[in-house]
Design goal:
Radius of gyration of chain A: 28 Å
Oligomer: heterodimer
Shape of chain B: globular
Structural class of chain B: mainly beta
Radius of gyration of chain B: 35 Å
Largest sheet of chain B: 22 strands, antiparallel, barrel
Number of strands of chain A: 7
Largest sheet of chain A: 2 strands, antiparallel
Shape of chain A: globular
């Protein structure tokens, strides 16, 4: 009996034990199956996946604008470093005055690394992955394949072009990254020839396969041609630049034309005939991106004065960080009919919106001028009443807030005109109609002769604060860059707090700043011989 | 010693005998043996000769042999004499008296003669030597040997006609009857043993002599009671947690502390639970050598929890915090649900051999928590309640209004080109000027901080029949924080049930319910907010911009009033543990546990709130569900083969799964804001939903063998196999062995005469364990969402993000060598243990950066080796151990050195020894601070021209270097400051430890507990944050320091600068964070028993506790343990430490 009982016990136990063993012994138990994450295979092996991959490239391209690093410096860092701006405060101020982002180890270099170096390499390599996947995916509709590759190639070219112009010593590749090759040591930068060959072949493919007319926000044949023209200018291939630029301006297929007046260029959602590339940001919509403070960085704090509320018409709510300097304001003032400083691109005057002086211009602070050599409370003037760039203040912005969500213009036809004009000046052709088309639209009197200085000045008037100035003067060469920076950067004696001290960008400028320093963290990941830019 | 005549009353004996047999039968008490001999006349036992040619036989066999040789019998609790071995000399005759006398001296046992029956007790002096191996000397050596001994042999006459009959009941600390406790009269030696109801009866022979009753029981503190005229006694024994025979909970079973092979630490629960907190980790601080408690990140907020770090960080990206095993069940995540009053004991497993049984998650230490359980007997109720008040503690001041204004003036002067002050109206707003002119400022600490308060009540209940025992408790904890609107309320219910189904099958069913209600404060800037301006307008309303709109800083009071942030949590934990005895030796146990935690967090930022105004109000609802289950099959084979060998085999197969689901919804734009976050469905702006779901599973097999040879040599060997779902496909499983040996030197012959040594045990263990990455899906190639919008239409975008998937991701292996010594000297005047360990983590899980040109940032990678080594010492002493006065001291001390030994090779096989991006440096500890060497403040007249910092070839040159700037050292003397001039600073403490003293005088207890950390280094944010709290910019207020000005050149603090952070501020801010703190000062009073006897209450204790009473440190801040950031918050940026005072009362039946 006892033995019998024991056997039963053993059986019960054995069954229990066995059942639980079976429960886990299958290897499946440890297999991972994420339920809220998409498998990358979807992105690289299906048509919809490849198309969604292309969408992500636009998002990466937008990232630097809505990334809240130091009050959204990603959207204004390039603007702050120019001969046309006075930078008053903040970390962007330190960068714009060449106090930071001047050494591979300072914090500014780290910020710039995340906003530019890392970001655009991420964009280019995600584009490469899509290109390689689309090229090798069997059964893909050839038309879709070409579209995907064309858009991806545009972004790869655009990223490398931005990186090259900022950081100079860059490495380009068409190879996809895996864990196996990720640690392959990169010993040296790519040569200029390698870089431009890749950029050009990518852009050629994009130009060939992209249409002129696409959904607003997408890159088009016009975008690719515009960038190709800029690349050609950089290479000194004036003919190519001219061809591409004129194609965008004059080709019968091109849907692009200048809008009728300067006040319309930046109005509304920017879906106009002049735009060539617009970063899309929209409220309350999936994928609409986050708010940014691009405009707030550029607009003064006039609302601090009692009797005036911030309103979009006067620029909206700003904190007066990167401002047009006197050099730029004087260029705009050269022709008194030029309306680009008449509350279209720039606003010079502010008015009371309430109280006894309603409607009157505010003049409680004043700048240093010949008539008034002491100015009137100059520090406050720069903070609260200084002229502002209002290109990025949008009609439907919230006037009570620094953060805005509206589309941002990146490339537009006015620049194509000036590229065409410059290319002609540098090679052959009549540049005047192209310059004057821009001037006449701004109600400025046409020029009768044009040289490179005319181009520089006109670009300043028309395109300043759109993020191209740094590249333009760099393209003109070290000498131009040195001259512009040492003479015009900042506001010199007009802002005595900064004049002739450590905050004077004219004094801080050094030749080697023509290339940005590659952050030490980024250099460390490359081979021991990988070159930092000269001078750092 | 008394030798008494006796006459034997056989009726009484027979009654006693029957009672013994009855309760043995009834309760199946395993280990009580009683034998009786024939009635015989009393004899002088000194004249009885015993032939003692025993060769290493158990004491039980000795007794049995003596019984054979004589007509005397022994009555004893076999637990008492377990494992004691005796060796005699051949052909040697000893008198029975001498034998007993010698045995008593060596074992601490006491013998009492009642007629022909010899009662065996635990000694009066429980701290007496407890020798497990006894060599009887020859009869010639004996007299000399006996002289050295303190023995107790009591020979008494059991009188049939006692003068006085006394009786009573003995109960344990919870009021349950203690069976087979020894009751003895000190003066006469007469004794009795309690029955199944804990009852005893004693017929006192010579009541004139009998004055003291001594009650003892294994594992409990012996009590002495004056008899007087009393005849009925009710005695409650308290746990004796210092006894060597203490039963210690180890993985999958219990062991006698003296049999432990591994490093296991037991917490002094009495001291630990004095901290008025819900955070069990915080209670463990200073209680266990080698254990650090990390209290950053808001863990001090009401309801917050901290992390434990044991023996340094043994992993970088893998799991680093210890695991908790509650009543044998491994917990994932915290133990917030445990009410400290429910805890019966806390043990900590330290070495690989001990941890091996819990496997891959156990490498960082295992906290074993045993909760209280029910006992057979009457219903008993106990209560613990306390109230605590808390106040902020700090060792700094902030600038007053005028001082702050001066600071700002100076900061702007520094940046002014001509070095002159700017006009006040250029740097102050109108509101600020008004404030300065009226000399009226805001004290934000006054406005924002309050006195915190805690109320805690726990009501416990135990009850039980023979087959069912229940422990239940209800707990309520409420804390109002020192930051407004930070509060926490917890209600908990625990029911632990033991159910015996039949002789073979029993089960444990535990249910734990918890309800949490947390109010999370908005961020509150107490230090940094400008004192200039006004907090309230004339009508008493909060002003949104206290300093005017210039500063744009919104009043913290405003944000508090315009926001709402609550969290409700519910935990449900149920554990089922059926145990089935297959045979006497073989047991099967199934362990099943289910944990389910839900929480809902709601947040509303109104359209007036600083962060909500953009969106016209933001509502957020965050729903989280965590579910975990655990199933273990455990098979245990326990066998004593013969006198010399015993062993134990355990096999465990276990699986567990942890599921986490989260739905986060954010809606913006509200026309009617009255509903707060509950009105989220009315959002007219954007609605954002994020869904997150992860599942982590592990599976394992474990086999463990324990072997005990001659009670001198103990071996434990473990082999386990661990599988983890987070590992890459081909790398799921890892096998790891561990072995531990212990040598009980005090049982060796050569130490048998060393009377000063009570215990001496050496332990060595060596073993490895696997540790996995904590985040799932990193070996998989997954894509994230990067949606975009084209012309107002959403488009779905997907791409892999910055983490490069590693398809060879696997466990890291942590191999630990541990050696230790447990000792007890001079009758436990001094006892404790010393451990040394060396632990190596190989195939280290770390982040490895990939060049940005790849588009990825890093991958999780197995490479390199990390070492932790150190000493741990724990000492205790009963300086005075008397009935009325007990003084004890205890201390523990540990150090740890952490060093990265190896990193990885680059793609071409060259060794990489530095990774600046992730701060890995071969030869340095993890988390080392690498920065320049601070060297003072530049002063007027210094050699600026040749300053390395100013040299244009320096990596970050300062061409405008001037007095008041921070000076750093040119370490390599090349005249430049370059990356090579950086030095390493190890932030880890050189050592840390605690010291406590406990005095107990006639029911009054005083405890003082100090905690010290020496040589810790940190970057102090108070000194390093430019814009906030360190206030160098003058835009925000900060911690008051004598900063540099041209008029008052400071050699210790840099010059304020309105514009840019002084360079090398982080190097400047590296400060020593050593401290000594009186953590706990406790005064307790146990009400005299005679006051309580009518109330059927045995013990009422009232106490006062001060926490963080005093801190000695040079480190500026609220506490050297918690770095203050710019805002005080109950979210992530740090909740300040506080000084608190508690009044409490504990009632036990």
């Amino acid at each position: 009996m006892r033995t019998y009982k024991k056997i039963i016990n053993m059986r019960v136990f054995a069954v229990l034990f066995f059942v639980s063993m079976v429960f886990v012994s299958c290897q499946d138990f440890l297999e991972e199956q994420p339920s809220t994450l998409i498998d990358s295979n979807y992105v690289y092996t299906t048509e919809e996946g490849l198309e969604s991959g292309v969408v992500s490239l636009y998002t990466f391209y937008r990232d630097r604008y809505d990334n809240n690093v130091q009050d959204y410096m990603g959207s204004v860092l390039l603007q702050s470093r120019s001969d046309l701006a006075f930078v008053r405060s903040g970390y962007t101020g330190l960068i714009g005055r060449y106090q930071r982002f001047v050494s591979p180890v300072d914090l500014g270099s780290q910020f710039a690394s995340s906003l530019f170096w890392k970001n655009f390499f991420k964009l280019s390599s995600k584009a490469t992955d899509l290109i390689n996947a689309a090229e090798n995916l069997e059964g893909l509709d050839p038309e879709v394949r070409d579209q995907v590759i064309a858009e991806a190639k545009f972004f790869r070219a655009e990223s490398y072009f931005i990186l090259y112009r900022m950081y100079n010593n860059i490495y380009v590749t068409t190879e996809s990254v895996t864990v196996d090759n990720a640690f392959a040591v990169i010993q040296d930068r790519s040569t200029d020839a390698e870089i431009f060959d890749l950029i050009n072949s990518d852009l050629d493919f994009a130009i060939e396969h992209l249409d002129w007319d696409r959904q607003f926000g997408r890159v088009t044949k016009g975008t690719a041609k515009h960038v190709k023209a800029k690349v050609a200018m950089w290479e000194g291939d004036w003919e190519e630049a001219k061809t591409q630029a004129l194609d965008v301006i004059e080709s019968p297929d091109s849907p692009h034309s200048l809008v009728s007046s300067t006040s319309n260029v930046f109005s509304g959602d920017l879906n106009n005939s002049e735009q060539l590339m617009t970063v899309q940001i929209q409220d309350d919509l999936l994928g609409g991106g986050a708010a940014n403070m691009m405009s707030a960085n550029l607009v003064t704090q006039y609302f601090q004065i009692s009797g005036i509320e911030s309103n979009v018409e006067q620029g909206g709510r700003g904190f007066s960080r990167v401002l047009p300097n006197l050099y730029l304001l004087n260029l705009l003032a050269e022709d008194e009919n030029d309306n680009r400083d008449d509350d279209t691109y720039f606003r010079l005057k502010y008015f009371y919106t309430s109280g006894p002086e309603i409607g009157q211009q505010i003049q409680i602070y004043g700048p240093i001028t010949e008539e008034d050599p002491d100015g009137n409370n100059v520090t406050r003037y720069y903070q609260r009443l200084h002229p502002s760039c209002i290109k990025f203040a949008n009609d439907d912005d919230d006037p009570t807030n620094y953060r805005q969500t509206s589309n941002i213009m990146v490339y537009r036809l006015a620049e194509t005109y000036l590229i065409a004009a410059e290319a002609m000046i540098r090679s052959s052709g009549d540049a005047l109609p192209y310059i004057n088309a821009i001037r006449e639209r701004a109600n400025a009197s046409p020029v009768t002769s044009a040289d490179l200085q005319t181009i520089l000045d006109e670009r300043a008037r028309e395109l300043s604060f759109e993020g191209q100035r740094w590249f333009t003067i760099k393209r003109f060469g070290q000498e131009t860059m040195n001259f512009q920076m040492r003479n015009f950067a900042g506001d010199g004696e007009f802002f005595p707090n900064n004049f002739n001290n450590e905050k004077d960008p004219r004094l801080n400028w050094q030749d080697h700043f023509i290339n940005f320093p590659i952050a030490q963290d980024d250099i460390n990941l490359l081979g021991p011989g990988y070159p930092q830019n000269d001078g750092y | 010693m008394n030798i008494m005549k006796k006459t034997f009353n056989w009726k009484q004996k027979l009654w006693k005998m029957t009672r013994f047999f009855l309760f043995i039968a009834a309760v199946q008490l395993t280990a009580l043996t009683t034998l009786f001999a024939n009635e015989a006349a009393s004899q002088e036992i000194k004249s009885i000769s015993i032939e003692s040619s025993w060769n290493d036989i158990t004491l039980e066999d000795v007794f049995s042999d003596v019984q054979d040789q004589t007509d005397y019998t022994f009555t004893y609790d076999s637990k008492l004499i377990e494992n004691i071995k005796v060796t005699g000399v051949e052909n040697n005759d000893l008198s029975l008296f001498n034998l007993l006398y010698y045995l008593s001296g060596k074992t601490g046992l006491q013998f009492s003669l009642e007629g022909k029956n010899i009662l065996v007790y635990e000694g009066v002096n429980k701290l007496n030597a407890r020798r497990n191996s006894i060599n009887l000397p020859s009869s010639t050596e004996l007299p000399q040997a006996l002289e050295k001994l303190k023995s107790s042999v009591i020979l008494q006459v059991d009188s049939a006609t006692g003068d006085q009959l006394i009786s009573g009941q003995v109960t344990d600390e919870t009021g349950q009857p203690l069976i087979a406790a020894t009751v003895r009269i000190k003066e006469t030696g007469q004794g009795a043993i309690t029955d199944a109801n804990g009852q005893f009866q004693l017929d006192v022979v010579d009541s004139a002599e009998a004055r003291t009753l001594v009650i003892s029981y294994v594992g409990y503190a012996t009590q002495e009671i004056l008899i007087g005229d009393q005849t009925d006694f009710s005695v409650q024994l308290g746990l004796d947690d210092s006894a060597l025979n203490e039963i210690v909970v180890v993985g999958y079973g219990t062991q006698r502390k003296s049999d432990l092979v591994s490093a296991v630490a037991t917490t002094d629960l009495e001291k630990a639970t004095l901290s008025p907190t819900t955070d069990v980790n915080e209670m463990l601080r200073g209680r266990i050598a080698g254990l650090q408690v990390s209290v950053g990140g808001g863990s001090l907020r009401p309801g917050g929890t901290s992390d434990i770090i044991f023996r340094g960080r043994s992993s970088i990206e893998g799991n680093t915090t210890g695991i908790y095993v509650v009543d044998g069940v491994v917990r994932n995540g915290g133990i917030e649900d445990i009410n400290p009053d429910d805890i019966a004991s806390i043990e900590f497993l330290k070495d690989a051999s001990a941890q091996a049984i819990y496997g891959s998650r156990a490498v960082n230490g295992v906290v074993l928590i045993t909760t209280k359980r029910g006992k057979t007997g009457e219903i008993a109720v106990n209560y613990h309640g306390y109230r605590t008040t808390r106040n902020i503690e700090r060792n700094f001041d902030v600038y007053s209004g005028q001082e702050f204004a001066d600071l700002r003036r100076e900061a702007f002067r520094t940046t002014n080109a001509d070095g002159t002050f700017l006009n006040d109206d250029e740097i102050f707003s109108d509101v600020e000027l008004e404030s300065l002119n009226n000399n009226r400022f805001v004290d934000w600490e006054d406005e924002l901080l309050t006195t915190g308060q805690i109320d805690n009540h726990t009501l416990g209940l135990t009850a039980g029949s023979e087959n069912t025992q229940v422990y239940g408790s209800l707990g309520y904890f409420n804390e109002e924080g020192i930051i407004p609107s930070s509060a926490y309320t917890r209600s908990s219910l625990r029911v632990n049930v033991n159910q015996k189904v039949n002789e073979k099958l029993s089960a444990r069913i535990d249910v734990n319910l918890l309800n949490e209600d947390t109010e999370r404060a908005a961020n509150v800037n107490v230090i940094g907010f400008s004192p200039l301006g006004r907090a309230f307008d004339d009508n008493g309303n909060v002003i949104k911009f206290p300093s005017g709109e210039d500063g744009t800083a919104i009043s913290p009071l405003w944000n508090l009033q315009e926001s709402d942030h609550d969290e409700i949590g519910n935990d449900f934990i149920v554990t089922l543990l059926p145990t089935y005895e297959i045979t006497d030796d073989l047991t099967y146990q199934l362990k099943g546990s289910l944990t389910r935690r839900t929480s809902e967090r709601g947040q509303y930022l109104s359209s007036e709130h600083g962060s909500g105004d953009t969106d016209n109000g933001i509502a957020r609802i965050d729903n989280q569900l965590r579910e975990a289950y655990l199933i273990e099959n455990i098979l245990t084979y326990d066998k004593t083969f013969n006198d010399k060998h015993s062993g134990n085999l355990t096999f465990v197969q276990a699986v567990d799964e942890n599921d986490f689901t989260r739905t986060f919804t954010e809606g913006t734009g509200f026309i009617n804001e009255s509903l707060g976050y509950d009105g989220i469905s009315n959002a007219i702006g954007s609605v954002f939903v994020n869904r997150d779901k992860t599942r982590v599973r592990t599976a394992s097999f474990m086999g463990r063998a324990r072997y005990n040879l001659l009670d001198k040599y103990l071996v434990t060997a473990t082999l386990r196999s661990d599988g983890a779902s987070v590992n890459a496909d081909e790398f799921k499983w890892t096998n790891n062995p561990a072995v531990a040996v212990a040598w009980k030197l005090h049982n060796e012959d050569f130490l048998s005469n060393a009377n000063d040594i009570d215990q001496l045990k050496m332990r060595v263990s060596y073993g490895s364990l696997a540790n996995a990455l904590t985040r799932p899906y990193t070996s998989l190639f997954t894509a994230d969402e990067f949606n975009y919008v084209f012309n107002g239409q959403s488009a779905a975008g997907y791409a892999p993000n910055v983490i490069l998937p590693n398809q060879q991701l696997r466990h890291e292996t942590i191999t630990t060598f541990n050696t230790g010594l447990d000792f007890s000297l001079f009758n436990r005047l001094l006892f404790g243990s010393i451990d040394y360990y060396d632990s190596r983590t190989k195939d280290l899980l770390l982040r490895r950066g990939v060049p940005s040109v790849t588009g990825f940032q890093y991958t999780f990678f197995n490479a390199g080796e990390l070492q932790n080594k150190g000493f741990e010492i724990g000492l205790q002493s009963y300086v005075i151990d008397k009935e009325d006065l007990r003084v004890s001291l205890s201390t523990n001390w540990s150090n740890n050195s952490n060093e990265l030994i190896e990193l990885y090779n680059d793609g071409e096989g060259n060794e990489i020894t530095e990774d600046d991006a992730y701060n890995y440096f071969v030869g340095q500890p993890i988390g080392v601070i690498r920065n320049y060497q601070y060297d003072g403040i530049w002063q007027e007249g210094d050699d600026f021209a040749n300053a390395p910092q100013a040299n244009p070839d320096s990596i970050d040159p300062q061409p405008d270097l001037r007095p008041g700037d921070i000076r750093v050292q040119d370490i390599n003397g090349d005249g430049l400051i370059t990356l090579d001039d950086r030095v390493f600073t190890d932030g880890n403490p050189d050592w840390f430890g605690s010291f406590s003293t406990n005095v107990n005088y006639k029911g009054v207890e005083l405890l003082a507990d100090f905690y010290a950390v020496k040589g810790a280094q940190r970057v102090n944010p108070i000194l390093s944050t430019f814009n906030n709290i360190s206030a160098y910019s003058g835009s925000n207020n900060g911690v008051q320091v004598p900063y540099y000005t041209p008029e008052n050149p400071s050699a210790a603090f840099p010059r304020p600068n309105a514009d840019s952070t002084p360079k090398y501020l982080n190097a400047f801010a590296i400060r020593d964070a050593s401290y000594l703190r009186l953590r706990t000062l406790n005064l307790g009073y146990n009400l005299p028993e005679n006051l309580l006897s009518n109330l059927k209450i045995n013990n009422v204790k009232v106490y006062l506790t001060g926490t963080n009473v005093f801190t000695d440190t040079d480190y500026l801040g609220y506490s050297p343990e918690v770095n203050v950031r710019n805002t005080l918050s109950s979210a992530d940026t740090g909740y300040p430490d506080a000084k608190s005072f508690t009044f409490g009362i504990k009632i036990q039946p």
